[in-house]
Amino acid sequence: MIENVFNKVTGFLTGLGGLLMAFLPLTILWQVLTGEPVFGMDVVGNLTTLIASIGEGGFAGLVVLILVVSFFTDKK
Fold first, then answer.
1. CA-CA distance, 31 to 53, in Å (whole number)?
2. Is this model's pTM higher than 0.70 or not?
3. 10 pLDDT higher than 70
4. Residue 2: exposed, middle, or buried by beta-carbon count in 10 A (0-12, 13-18, 19+)?
5. Helical H segments across the chain, by residue range
């Protein structure tokens, strides 16, 4: 019973993550074309800040970048 609940929650979160990862390029494209933020969020500015902070982090930034990329790569 617990395994069934865990599988359903995991499936839901995986699907939600996939949906958000598909939505990200659309928000970037929208902001580039219109110059206006999407839902009040400056997506391009946030990504620029994230990349700059990882670059300033040195070795720790590199480790964080590798961990973040490992979350989004296909493990099959």
1. 22
2. no
3. yes
4. exposed
5. 2-34, 43-56, 59-72
